[in-house]
Amino acid sequence: MRPFTKLIRQTVANSRSTAKTLAPRTRNLAMSTGAAETDTQAAKAASNSGVTVSSLEVTLKEKLGAEHVDIEDMSGGCGQAFNAMIVSQQFEKKNTLARHRLVNSALKAEIAAIHAWTPKCFTPEEWQKKQDEAGT
Length: 136
Fold this sequence. Notes:
The chain is an alpha+beta fold. It contains six helices and three strands; from the N terminus they run H-H-H-E-E-H-H-E-H. It has helices at residues 3-33, 39-47, 53-64, 96-106, 108-113, 124-134, and strands at residues 68-73, 81-87, 116-122. A three-stranded mixed β-sheet has the order 1-2-3. The longest helix has 31 residues, at 3-33. It is elongated. It starts with a helix and ends with a helix. Residues 26-35 have low confidence and may be disordered.
């Protein structure tokens, strides 16, 4: 047998044995960190996160003095993905990144418990202009 072929066979054998020993460790790590192994466990964890549309709205109105908050649960009710439209005077003279950072800091605990968060932030003047353009 040529040395190169022997090296390849040895590498394949080593990677198979490594995979066998890592699989239980990975499962144990997932269990110790609280990561869900199944969809059922993930759904249960999501339902226990306590993040709801109304809780997000209340927090944003309290912490940012938001005049208008419209939040949509994009996850089908499990509370893991949200789109938000937020209108606050605190966004005045801030660029998009600064606005998002302000919102994210206000919702730090809630964002840690969810999978996806997409805010759209407007000042009251920008919101009014958008409403006028839409004809509502």
